[in-house]
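Sequence in, structure out. Go.
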Amino acid sequence: MRHPLFFIGFLFALLSGGMAAASLLGAPGVEMPTRTASLLLVSNLGMLVVLARLYFRQPAVVPAAVVVAPHRAEIQSLQRLVQIVQHGQTPAEVYHILLESAVQTAQADAAWLDLGPDHDSTSDVAQYYQLAPAQADALRAGLRAQGPSDDESIIGDLRSRPGFAGPALAFRSLMRLPLHGRHLDYGVLYLLKAQPNTFDREDLSVLQTFASQAVLSIENLALATIALHNQRTQEELKIASEVQDSLIPKKLPTDDWFEISTHSLAAKEVGGDFYDFLLLPGRRLAVLIGDVSGKGITAAFHMAQMKGIFHALMQGNPLAKNERDRFPVPSRFMTQANAALAHCLERSSFITSSLYIIDYEQGGFMFARAGHCHTLYYHALREEVFYFQSTGLGLGIIRDDSYEKHINNQFYDYGPGDVMVIYTDGIVEARGAGKEEYGEDRLKQRLEECYYQDADAIKWFILNDLNGFTTGQPIHDDQTLLVIKFKAVEPETTA
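Output:
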């Protein structure tokens, strides 16, 4: 008759495995994290396999009292492995339990564990049991004489094997058990007995399941560590995304003279595109747009720096002789921003930007382009759509006083009904199914078709066409689009 502990073990494995399966299948009243349920289910399946092997194993002809103790140790050892999978402890603990469990199950006199190259060397693992390192070295040398194979093996009598014949041996039987994962090799476990011909295939079969559980534990712990790191990274990126979103203007400047509509979409959780507005005295509006080279966290960090520089440099100069000279013109702003960024921008990074100062009382604007995309413009009086062809060098490319020579101001008088489309290269470089870019020509054609609508409708007309063009393709760069439309009917001015 089998020991009652077998049935307790079966019930324990079936119950906990059933709970895990019920959780995964969404059974009412059974809830646990998906990952925990999956690991618990796999672990208990392995436990059932070992229990089945132990149950149907033919017992040796020895007193019953001697048979029960090893089986009890086997079940308890496997339960400890299952608990490690469930509770997510360390690889070192898994190795320790495996070594201890294998020795107890096989009733080995000694053992050692050779960790493979894929083992985490920072883990503190006890590699020897009742064996001096020098003895293990001698046995390794003897095993190398038999060939390079690391397949599991049971050696009846070491003294009859090449490499071991002749010298006196403290151990005569050896079992070798590789720890193979799906993609990595974690090491080899060696078990020893003093008497020859004392390991059998049943020992090997049970210990293979132990080893499989240990490897599963180690791999799942590695996956859990990666998942935790990714979760923390995602949480940090979420915070960064929220911070960056707070830097994007939500309240757009409004006036009877113009309309503004904006769009911004990051290719990743955070991006390097930016835009901002500042109302200046004298019924003027400063509009800044830019694009930091690269994507992700670093680009987002420099985007925040550029926003801070914008607000710092566009403060009034109290020593100016008149109100309109208190604020830097666009070319002066770019020169000062370039000098500020020289101290904090990586050598491999740069920023393209354009600054527009719109004087909607005087009916004109001044702008400077620091290597940014050309401005698309609709001139209502001439009924013409065109790009401003201006020169200018990106910020951070030249980091000395000579930068001032590479930036200049341009002036333009606007009229009622004119439209200005300002964007980053993520718009015109967006790719369609055939890897063809959206392009400046297509953007120009869309404005020719929708210039008569209001600013928000123009923006959506362009975006809908862009989204149709890129259907099924991933966004490979941040996208920003600003549409400014000067109203066709100017407000009456008060005396």
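Check: Residues 1-8, 59-70 have pLDDT under 50 and may be disordered. Residues 46 and 213 are 7 Å apart (CA to CA).
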